[in-house]
Design brief:
Pfam families: Peptidase_S66, Peptidase_S66C. GO terms for molecular function: carboxypeptidase activity; serine-type peptidase activity. By secondary structure, the chain is an alpha/beta fold. Helices cover about 25% and strands about 25% of the residues. Strands 6-13-12-7-8-9-10 form a seven-stranded mixed β-sheet. Strands 2-1-3-4-5-11 form a six-stranded mixed β-sheet, with helices on both faces. Strand 4, helix 4 and strand 5 form a beta-alpha-beta unit. Helix 6 crosses helix 7 and helix 7 packs parallel to helix 8. The radius of gyration is 18 Å and the shape is globular.
């Protein structure tokens, strides 16, 4: 697995739209954050474009992202926000130069399309807060992004909730948004999870949708040979008038328990205020005991 070069003061980070629209005035908190770390910022041409929901047409978003991929002066690409739209441009991007000289691609939610696609090239990416979420993100999450970008040691220890499946494992961390992982099944962007630790999170889904997506992952072999499962925020879940009968913990546990792997729930990552940075593709030590969950990047 290739790990992109860590940043140093004076390096430039690009902010672009791959999905929903985002405007220059909204980017100011993110710009100020990056500059406080000693970094320079380049706003892509898609920042400020308005094509219905999207930050520019597909062609405009492809061209903007491609320029940042190929620009040697850009050391990281920070996707402005999620929503929907990245899958519309992924096949129009040329990663030839990127694979030889990788740089950090940063974001979460819809950016899982990029995380997954790039993982198939054996290049690490960064699942973290985005410019859109900077104003409503806890300071600890911002600091974990800084640590990840500058190559500082990352070790997370959080309290156990009491319904985890205890155990320990070591492997590459992969994954992202459950709905996006589900939507990529059968495509060239779908990831291989064998001998890896899978991270999932989601937002605003019905419980039976969660069940359906997980069963489809199971039928596609995502749990075969999996070493561990990190469940992040399962935010604003919904139920039907006739209850499904299980909440998200019950749904996930009922599927995962047959694989004899450690599983934690509500890890601070995803559509939550405490959205800590995860280096997808990096090797982690994952351990769950009676009282704590530890995720340590090697």
């Amino acid at each position: 697995m290739k790990i992109p070069s860590y940043l140093k003061k004076g390096d430039t980070v690009a902010i672009v739209c791959t999905a929903r629209k985002f405007f220059p005035e909204d980017a100011q908190p993110a710009i100020e954050l990056l500059k406080s770390w000693g970094l320079e910022v380049k706003l892509g041409r898609t920042i400020g474009l308005d094509s219905c929901q999207l930050g520019g047409t597909d062609r405009e978003r492809i061209d903007d992202f491609q320029q940042m991929l190929d620009d040697d002066n850009i050391k990281a690409i920070w996707c402005a926000r999620g929503g929907y739209g990245t899958v519309r441009i992924i096949d129009g991007l040329d990663f030839t130069k990127f694979k030889k000289h990788p740089k950090w691609i940063i974001g979460f939610s819809d950016v899982t399309v990029l995380h997954s696609h790039v993982h198939t090239m054996k290049v690490a990416t960064l699942h973290s807060i985005m410019p859109f979420t900077v104003p409503r993100t806890e300071e600890i999450s911002k600091e974990t992004l800084r640590k990840a970008l500058f190559g500082e040691k990352i070790r997370y220890e959080v309290s156990a909730k009491g319904y985890e499946i205890k155990g320990k494992a070591t492997g590459q961390l992969v994954g992202g948004n459950l709905s996006i992982l589900y939507s990529l099944l059968g495509s060239k962007s779908s990831i291989d999870t064998k001998d890896k630790i899978l991270f999932i999170e989601d937002l605003d889904e019905y419980l039976y949708h969660i069940d359906r997506m997980l069963y489809n992952l199971k039928r596609n072999g995502y749990f075969d040979g999996l070493k561990g499962l990190v469940v992040g925020g399962m935010t604003d879940m919904h139920d039907n008038e006739i209850p499904f009968g299980q909440n998200e913990v019950g749904i996930i546990t009922s599927i995962a328990k047959e694989y004899n792997i450690p599983v934690c729930f509500y890890f601070p990552a995803g559509h939550v205020k405490d959205n800590r940075a995860l280096i997808l593709g990096a090797t982690v030590n994952f351990e769950i005991t009676d009282d704590k969950v530890v995720l340590e990047f090697q």
